Amino acid sequence: MAVSKATKTQQLEEIRERLKQSSAFVLIDYVGINVEDDTGFRKAFREKGVHYRVYKNRLLKIALNEIGVTEFDKFLEGTTSVAFSKDPTGAAAAVVSGSKNIPKIKIKCGSLDGVFIDESGVKQLASMPSKEVLLSMLLGVMQAPVRGLAVGLNATIAGLARALQSVADQKQ
Question: What global pTM score does this model have?
Answer without folding.
Answer: 0.71
